[in-house]
Amino acid sequence: MSTFTLVHVVISLVGIVSGFVVAYGMLTGKRVAGGTVVFLASTVLTSVTGFLFPFHRFLPSHGVGIVSLVLLAVAIAALYIFHLSGGWRRVYVMAAITALYLNVFVLIIQLFMKVPALESVAPKQTESPFVATQVLCLALFVVLGTLATKRFGAERARTA
Description:
The chain is mainly α.
């Protein structure tokens, strides 16, 4: 693994871990200010550094990166420009949770590509174990997003 790849992976994992901290804050109705900065910055960096890998054609990973950057721009605007006022609170929650989901979605893909035990059960990433894992992940994020929107999006959140 190259140094650049290692840095990209570490940034991505920081984004995922801090994203779950932020999501927990949303579920409890609290804004985790420091964690939010780390989550947003590291997730933006994950997407940006993803475009710095050599490529010869547009890949699905580029599409995910573009969607993630758009979602993150919306989340950042909702938080820092519109200060979560009115409907921007819900917009922020949905954009942030979806950006976190996309990071986890890519993590699952990478795990099935790089971990021999997972690669052996789903070498083409079309097999049942891979599909079931991605469907379960999506379902969990739908629940997480719904609960976070109801709990954080509906009331004035306290800063933790």
